[in-house]
Write a structure and sequence with these properties.
- This protein has about 450 residues and is of the alpha+beta class.
- Helices cover about 40% and strands about 20% of the residues.
- The protein is built from 15 helices and 22 strands.
- A six-stranded mixed β-sheet has the order 3-2-1-4-6-5, with helices on both faces. The protein has a five-stranded antiparallel β-sheet with strand order 7-8-11-10-9.
- Helix 2 (about 30-40) packs across helix 8, helix 6 packs across helix 9 and helix 6 (about 125-140) crosses helix 10 (about 210-240).
- It starts with a helix and ends with a strand.
């Protein structure tokens, strides 16, 4: 396996000898094996360990284990502690995303400080399969089916050529110790559900499914290369860059072998939702003047061109949401639904999904930018507060404030979208029907 990893590193030019490599080591099987192999191959390793304080005493145990491991191997060791739950709450993101942001931000700082050539992390072939399946279920293009890249900037993944079984066998053969992450058995996490439930079911259908999916990912990597080269040539024919933005030549676009794919690849990175992109395609032959929006761009259907402008000012525009509307795509993507209040129903605590008392709402709702002088009653508070003060407390930048949307019932603020609901619209014990509003981000 050591030779296999060495060949993989050489094939993709991931590392060179004589220069420092930051190795992320959690103490689990994968990262311990990665460190052992890179050290044996002669790379100048620096161990980097993150203590996220997510698993009580286990977090301290992991930190001590990695420190002792680095000491026994005579390898330089660095560690850091994070208040991950607080960070997630402050930035209104999941704990998993918070840990990822904190980890890679610190890795990058260490990378710069140490003058390293790369940051090596221990993703392996089974991680790649799980990622590909998750992307497939969520909805993805060719890139998502290509799995995890072996290189992403300074981050490299030398173990992508190895299966979990190979790694575990290497651990046993070399008598290596490790610490077990007890959350790996918890299928509440999406990845663990694929690992513990979905893949075993697929193996019942095809015992060789893992190898089949390894091979499929490799083929998609090649397909992606060809796909991107083809799209590059098409874009040069279809898209024209002007001082005012982008212009898509409609007649040339209509001559392409697959119009929906070309439009998707041009418009999706600009924030246009797939449903909006379908509407653009539908109206290619319609009269000029139709306008389509993403959170950051406007597309105008002209006679010969689709004209796209960035940073459209929508501050003076108010959008109306009637009682029967279940979803909107402009100016932002919101989904609306109603459900009866049940004791077992968990009230959403997510920043991007709110539950409010439907009987308190006055339709039609409106959506607009915030105005100076706006006030609301932050959730849990009985006194009103200026939005300008709330923004200061949230440490929002000027751009963040300019892009902030407000959902209103009559003249009363219901939700600072993606941030905080108004206490007057919260779900109470007397609530009979819950109105759910969900903000969908374009990725």
């Amino acid at each position: 396996m050591q030779k296999k990893v060495q060949d993989y590193i050489k094939k993709h030019d991931l590392l060179s000898s004589g220069t420092k490599v930051i190795v992320g080591v959690s103490g689990g099987t994968d990262s311990v094996v990665l460190l052992h192999i890179l050290h044996n191959l002669g790379y100048d390793c620096i161990v980097a360990h993150c203590n996220f304080h997510l698993r009580m005493d286990d977090s301290k145990r992991d930190e001590e284990f990695v420190r002792n491991l680095a000491t026994s191997m005579k390898i330089k060791y660095y560690s850091i502690e994070f208040k991950t739950f607080e960070y997630a709450k402050e930035h209104k993101i999941s704990v998993e995303m918070a840990a990822r942001e904190l980890r890679y931000a610190w890795f990058n700082q260490l990378f710069e400080k140490q003058g390293a050539q790369a940051i090596a992390v221990a993703h392996h072939a089974d991680d790649n399969i799980e990622t590909m399946l998750m992307n497939l279920v969520r909805g993805t293009g060719i890139r998502g089916l290509s799995g995890i890249p072996y290189r992403n900037g300074q981050v490299v993944r030398p173990l992508l050529c190895c299966s979990r079984t190979e790694i575990e066998n290497y651990m046993i053969e070399n008598n290596l110790d490790h610490v077990e992450d007890t959350t790996n058995a918890n299928s509440d996490y999406t990845r663990n559900k694929f690992r513990n439930e979905v893949l075993p079911l697929l193996e019942e259908i095809n015992p060789s499914v893992r190898q089949t999916l390894y091979n499929t990912i490799e083929r998609f990597e090649g397909i992606q290369t060809i796909y991107e080269q083809s799209l590059y040539r098409i874009n040069r024919e279809v898209v024209h860059i002007t001082d005012d933005g982008l212009k898509i030549d409609i007649e040339i676009l209509k001559k392409q072998p697959h119009i929906p794919i070309v439009l998707y690849e041009i418009l999706f990175p600009l924030g246009f939702h797939p449903a909006v992109i379908k509407q653009v395609e539908k109206h290619l032959d319609s009269e000029p003047g139709r306008t389509f929006y993403s959170p950051s761009h406007r597309l105008l259907k002209d006679r010969k061109y689709l004209i796209i402008n960035a940073n459209i000012e929508l501050s003076n525009t108010t959008f109306t949401i009637s009682h029967e509307i279940m979803e909107i795509f402009q100016p932002i993507h919101l989904k609306f639904s109603r459900r009866d209040r049940h004791p077992e129903l968990q009230i959403s605590k997510e920043a991007n999904c709110i539950h409010i008392d439907a009987d308190v709402l006055q339709f039609p709702l409106t959506l607009r930018r915030w105005n100076k002088g706006d006030t609301f009653y932050p959730f849990g508070m009985q006194k009103h507060k200026k939005l300008s003060d709330f923004f200061i407390d949230e440490k929002m930048s000027r751009i963040d404030k300019e892009q902030c949307w407000i959902l209103l019932s009559g003249d009363e603020i219901v939700w600072i979208v993606g941030k905080r609901i108004d206490n007057r619209f919260r779900v109470t014990e007397d609530t009979k029907i819950i109105f759910q509003v969900e903000l969908e981000f374009v990725k």
